[in-house]
Amino acid sequence: MRSFSAFSTSSLSLSLSVASFLALTTLSTSASAGGPTWENLVTADGVQGVPGLKGAVWVPNQFNNPTIDSAGNVIFRGQFAGAGISTANSRAIFRGTPGNWTMIAREGSPLPGGLVPGAVINTASGINGLSSANMVTADGGIVVAASINGGGVTSANNDVNVFVASNGAASMLAREGDAFPGASGVTMTVSQLSSGVYVNNAGKAITSVSLTGTGVITTAGVTQNNSAVVRYTTTGTEVVFRRGDAAPGAGVADQWAIPAGSVLQQDTFGLFENGEKIAFSGKLLHPVAGTVPLNADNVYLANVDGTLKVIARDGSEIPGFPGIIFKQSSDFAGPISWGNHPIMDDGTIIFYTIMGGAVTAGLDDVAIMQVKDGVYTVLARRGEVWPGVSDGLVFSGPNTNSFIRNQGGLLAFQGILMNADGTAAATNATFVGFRRADGSKGVICRQGDAVPGLKGVTFGSLNGSTSICISDAGTVVFNANLVGAEFPTGGAAIMAFDTVNGLRVLAKTNDTGFTGTPVNQITLIGGTGVNGNGGNTGINPSGYLVARFADTANAIYTIARINLDPGTAPCPADFDNDGEVGASDLATLLGAWGTNGADLDGDGDTGASDLAILLAAWGNCQ
Q: pTM of the full predicted structure?
């Protein structure tokens, strides 16, 4: 490392033209010194104390996936130990930020609001009463799913779901054994809600329940009526659909051609909501055998215009695409997969589909689509040449669990490439791509590409590893596998991309800033959770991201957050974050010469081009 006094400017050939300066300043930069930084929120190492619990310490490896609300408050469930703490009262759900944590619910204590007098949170055996804390609203409301015991509690009424609003007010959503609305003598087998259940900003949670009691038929067939899709609310349960009721659109002369007399058996998974808008799938049955063929019985429904309607059916022509149908499939699989958070605020629905009819199987029969106001649009289709892919490969399709769109129309996905003849690509077949609302498309990164800021490191396979999420401000975040250099046996990173800052590493295996030791475990909840009306739980609309990190060898676990709002990103060369690029920043760069400590051009090394970028940004940068 050279000191400033020993540094020779002549060796760097600083005679750059104005044009060179302008060109250099357009380069995307990696997340390095001067960019957004992580804030460690809570650490479990058997030593760190628990807010509000004197003498208690966090137990390692017991944080669930943290979530974040629109204000940046983090919600998580953790376990602690210490004097007076046993397995009966050692777990709790917290919300807040450092110095401002609130305990929302604790095992061994009464339910929030004392909603069941005499009962405490825990199973009959006295432990493990709290479910995870992934069901949150945009303003920090939380669904507390729990088992209770105590006076009057039996195995028939011990599971409860409570909504705790951001102001602390608690309301019962549902309790095991509750009556099923509109059906005398019928009860719901309510269970604890779990991660992945969608809850809207009013605290309504969509789920599936089994039914027992008067008139309930369990025998398979058109009369079977022993389950329902419902929404738990703070004022009572709303029925969305009951198994065996008349299929929406049955007998109507429309493009879906559902025979009169058909009933619907709704699926008990894949239930979505955004505000009052909902979507789910199911199967058609008819009293006359063969009226609904097994390869045309899958239907997909939504109520985005206020009325529950079919938006897709096996074997039916896709509106606006003459001769092309939603592929007919077996009785156990349909042609559609919903996207993460498939319902947008404006009623747009995103889905993946396999097509039949006037297509060529394996070449152009897969697409990511959207439907809005009855208009169906292809966003990405198998066989198309994808901008940014220059070696002759074409788009094959997305990983069906990793595509998501924000409210502004930006679609991000983990994609797969193939040869133009439909055969599998030999190498570097996975990538992360995007499509903007204006239809422009591109590659964020591809398997085999160099990782910005990490010399000698490339992206490994991106298939199934991304946990992709996206903010309404336009920042895409995902996990990536790393290979090479410091990762001879493989590593992992959280990556971020937006048009202001480009692609950069946010955190990676071996980083020491989270636990004080090299981390070997990085967990990003991505788009699999929800936050209020269809947002991500891992990243909020403005770009606050939360994740878990761990050094499992030393049993140290941390939850941290970072603000990625591209509208407020500081100058990359402003290393000391004082609002201008000056002498202090120059000293930082020179002190990092030959390392990646002040790498501005993303080549993994601090050198002449980084100095040129800094000099071009000299002065006030706010």
A: 0.84
